[in-house]
Write a structure and sequence with these properties.
Helix 11 (267-295) packs parallel to helix 17 (414-434), helix 12 (312-318) runs antiparallel to helix 19 and helix 13 packs parallel to helix 17. The model has no long low-confidence stretch (mean pLDDT 95). The protein is α/β, with parallel strands linked by helices. The chain contains 23 helices and 25 strands.
Length: 636
C-alpha cells in the first residue's frame, strides 16, 4: 500500500513555462485533506523549489538539489556540498568555451557570467540578474551545493567538460544530459538517495512510495520506489525504468498515477498481486498434509464426498463439482451448509460418506450444525481451515490446516486461493490413492499449479491496466451480470460476490444457457456490466461464446475473461487474457482474479467501504455476530 507520494518538478508537475496549474494545487490539497502525504524530490536547489513548496502547501520534508538537500519548512535537515576549489578548472574551462555556468550556495542559485542563456532566463523567468564570479579567496573558501554547465551549442562540445569531470575527486559526481548540460554535485546527492531519505523520515519503506518522474536523473528512483510512474512526456530511459507510463503529460499524468495507485488502490488489487508468493508459501505444506490425509483412506475409500462452506468457502467448494470425480473417480456433491444441516436426508449419510467443510475461521453456527449432523450420522468429516481449534476444527475427525501468512483485512481472495489449493491438492492425492492418477500425472498436475503462480505474475500488470480503464467506464453502473458454464460458473459466482461486497451493486451470476432464458432481458442494456468467463477447453465454450455474441449485439458493455486468443472474440468486447493450463483444475487459481480487481477499482472509485463498513443499516453485521450467534437447530 502506498503511504508516501514523491514527484519530480520540472517536466513532471510543471512544463517549460514552469507554471504550476491551479488544478494540480487543488488536487494536492484534496490529498492532504484525506491524510495522504505528498512531497517533491527535485533537481532544483531549495531557493528555486521554495515557490512550489509554498504553493503546494508541503509541510513534510522535501528533497532539493537532486537529493543533496533535505528540507522541512525553514529547517535544512541535510545538505551535501562540495568545495568550490575542486571544480574550478571545470568552471573556468566551460566559461572560456562560452558555456553558461550556474552555481548554488546555501540553496540560492545564480549565474557565473552573463550569457545569451542567462539573459533569456532573466527575461523569461526573472532570475540570475546579478551574475557573479569569484575572488581568489572565495575560490579557496566557498562550498557549493551544485554546479550546472549549459552547452552554448548542442554540438557535442559538452563532452570536453565531461572529460574534465571524470578527473574530479571521487567524492564529486556528475551527470550528463545528452549534448545539453552537465550537473556536478556531491556524489551522494542523487535523486534516488533523496527519495530513500524522505521515506525514512516519514517512517515508511521504499516499497510504500509512489515516485513520479520524467528525466534521466529520475531513472534509479523510478526503479527503486515501490511504484515508479513516468509521465507520458518522459524521456525514454525513464519510461523504460517505470512500472507504469501515464497517458497524460506532466501534472495530468501525475494525477492519473496517483488516482490509479493511491486513491483507487484497494485491498482486492493488492491481494491479487500477493497470490504468486502465497502459492510458494503454501504449496509444499498443503501438499504434504493432503498426501497424509489421502493415505488414511487407502483401505476405506469413501463412496461419495460432500463439499460445503459459506460465502467464499462455498465458492471454493464449488470448484469440486466436476473436478473431484474426474480426478478421483469418487462421486461428489456440493451442498450449502444450510441445506445440509436442515434438509439433507440422514439415510444418505453414514460411514461411506466423507463430509468436507471449508472455512478459514472455522467458526459459525451453520457449519458447526453441519459437522454435528455428519457426526451423528457417523459420516467421516474433514475440516479445511486456518484454525484447528475452531468449532469445526474440534468437531471434525480430520483437519487440513491452512497456514496463511497475515495480510490486510477486508473482502479479498487470499483465503479463497488457499482453500482452492488445499482442495486441489487433496483431490490429486486422492486420485493417486484410488489409482486414477499415476505418478507422472500427479507430478504434472502440481507443476501446472506452480505455473499458475508465474503466469499470474506475468499477466497481472497488463490485466491491471486494462481493468483500470474498464473500471473508469463502468464506475457508475448499478447492475453487474457474471456468466460462465461448467467450471467457469464458479468464477462467475465469486465475481458476483466481490461486486456485492466491494461495490454494493446489484449483481447476479448464471450459467450461459440460463442467461439466454433470463439474464439477457435486463432492461438497462447500456449500463449492465456483463462479464463472461470462458476457458478455451471448457465443454461449454460454444454456448458461452454465443452468449458473448448476443450480449454484444444487444449493446451491453461486455468483458470476456479467457485463456483463448483475443482475436477469437467480437471486436466490441473487452478481452482480458488469463493464465492457461493443460490441467484444467489449475485454472480455478487464476481465472477469477480479473473480477476481483474490477470490483476493487469500482468500489474505490465510488468511495465505497467494503461490506459498507458494517455501519448504519449494516451495523448488525459487525464482528460476524449474526453468523456466530444464530439460533442453533439440531436435526434429529
Amino acid at each position: 500500500m502506498i503511504k508516501l507520494i514523491v514527484t519530480d518538478v520540472d517536466g513532471t508537475i510543471v512544463g517549460k513555462d514552469e507554471i504550476l496549474h491551479q488544478e494540480f494545487i487543488d488536487y494536492v490539497q484534496r490529498l492532504k485533506a484525506r491524510g495522504i502525504d505528498y512531497t517533491i524530490a527535485t533537481g532544483r536547489v531549495r531557493g528555486l523549489a521554495a515557490h512550489y513548496v509554498e504553493a503546494l502547501g508541503i509541510s513534510i520534508p522535501y528533497a532539493a538539489g537532486n537529493g543533496g538537500c533535505i528540507v522541512r519548512g525553514e529547517e535544512v535537515i541535510l545538505e551535501k556540498i562540495i568545495p568550490l576549489s575542486a571544480v574550478r578548472e571545470v568552471i573556468e574551462k566551460a566559461d572560456q568555451m562560452g558555456m553558461s555556468v550556474l552555481y548554488s550556495i546555501d540553496g540560492q542559485e545564480q549565474a557565473y557570467r552573463e550569457t545569451d542563456y542567462v539573459l533569456q532566463q532573466q527575461r523569461d523567468y526573472d532570475r540570475y540578474h546579478e551574475p557573479k564570479g569569484f575572488s581568489e579567496e572565495e575560490w579557496e573558501s566557498l562550498h557549493v551545493d551544485k554546479i550546472i554547465v549549459m552547452a552554448k551549442y548542442r554540438d557535442g562540445s559538452i563532452g570536453e567538460i565531461e572529460a574534465l569531470c571524470s578527473l574530479l575527486p571521487p567524492e564529486i559526481g556528475y551527470k550528463r544530459y545528452a549534448d545539453k548540460s552537465i550537473d556536478i554535485f556531491q556524489r551522494e546527492a542523487k535523486k534516488e538517495i533523496g527519495v530513500k531519505l524522505l521515506a525514512s523520515l516519514m517512517q515508511v519503506s521504499l516499497e510504500e512510495v509512489l515516485f513520479v518522474g520524467d528525466d534521466l536523473n529520475d531513472v534509479k528512483a523510478l526503479r527503486e520506489a515501490g511504484i515508479g510512474a513516468a509521465v507520458a512526456n518522459a524521456q525514454q530511459p525513464a519510461k523504460d525504468a517505470a512500472d507504469y507510463v501515464t497517458e497524460g503529460e506532466r501534472h495530468l499524468g501525475v494525477m492519473e498515477a496517483i488516482d490509479r495507485f493511491v486513491l483507487h488502490d484497494n485491498s482486492l488489487r493488492r491481494q491479487s498481486y500477493s497470490l504468486p508468493l502465497l502459492l510458494k508459501e503454501l504449496m509444499e505444506n498443503i501438499r504434504s498434509q493432503a498426501a497424509l490425509l489421502a493415505k488414511t483412506y487407502l483401505h476405506s475409500r469413501p463412496g461419495k464426498v460432500i463439499f460445503m462452506g459459506c460465502g467464499d468457502s462455498h465458492a471454493a467448494a464449488m470448484t469440486m463439482r466436476f473436478s473431484w470425480q474426474r480426478l478421483t473417480g469418487i462421486p461428489a456433491e456440493i451442498v450449502t451448509v444450510m441445506d445440509f444441516s436442515r434438509e439433507y436426508l440422514k439415510e444418505n449419510l453414514g460411514p461411506d460418506a466423507l463430509v468436507v467443510i471449508v472455512s478459514i475461521s472455522g467458526n459459525g453456527v451453520r457449519i458447526e450444525e453441519a459437522a454435528d449432523k455428519a457426526n451423528r450420522c457417523r459420516a467421516r468429516t474433514l475440516a479445511i481451515t486456518g484454525n484447528p481449534d475452531s468449532g469445526i476444527g474440534r468437531r471434525c475427525s480430520q483437519v487440513l490446516k491452512l497456514n496463511i501468512p497475515p495480510f490486510e483485512r477486508g473482502p479479498g481472495n487470499r483465503n479463497y486461493f488457499a482453500s482452492i489449493l488445499a482442495l486441489l491438492s487433496f483431490a490429486i492425492e486422492m486420485g493417486k490413492m484410488t489409482g486414477r492418477l499415476d505418478e507422472a500425472m500427479v507430478s504434472h498436475a502440481y507443476e501446472e499449479i506452480k505455473k499458475q503462480g508465474e503466469q499470474i505474475r506475468q499477466l497481472l500488470p497488463q490485466m491491471d491496466s486494462q481493468l483500470y480503464r474498464i473500471s473508469k467506464r463502468w464506475a457508475d453502473y448499478l447492475d453487474f451480470d457474471f456468466v460462465g458454464a461448467g467450471d467457469d460458473l464458479v468464477h462467475g459466482w465469486f465475481g458476483h460476490a466481490k461486486a456485492i461486497e466491494a461495490v454494493g451493486a446489484f449483481a447476479t451470476f448464471n450459467n450461459s444457457e440460463e442467461w439466454f432464458h433470463m439474464n439477457n432481458f435486463y432492461r438497462d442494456i447500456k449500463h449492465t456490466g456483463t462479464c463472461f468467463f470462458i476457458s478455451r477447453n471448457s465443454p461449454g465454450f460454444s454456448r458461452t461464446y454465443e452468449a458473448v455474441e448476443y450480449a454484444v449485439r444487444l449493446g451491453r458493455p461486455v468483458l470476456v475473461v479467457t485463456d483463448e486468443e483475443k482475436a477469437r472474440f467480437p471486436q466490441k468486447c473487452e478481452v482480458i487474457q488469463v493464465p492457461s493450463s493443460d490441467f484444467p483444475p489449475a485454472l480455478f487459481l487464476s481465472h477469477y482474479i480479473p473480477s476481483c480487481i474490477l470490483a476493487g477499482y469500482i468500489g474505490a472509485m465510488r468511495g465505497e467501504k467494503n461490506c459498507r463498513g458494517c455501519l448504519g443499516p449494516w451495523a448488525f453485521a459487525a464482528g460476524g455476530k449474526y453468523i456466530n450467534e444464530s439460533r442453533r437447530i439440531v436435526d434429529e
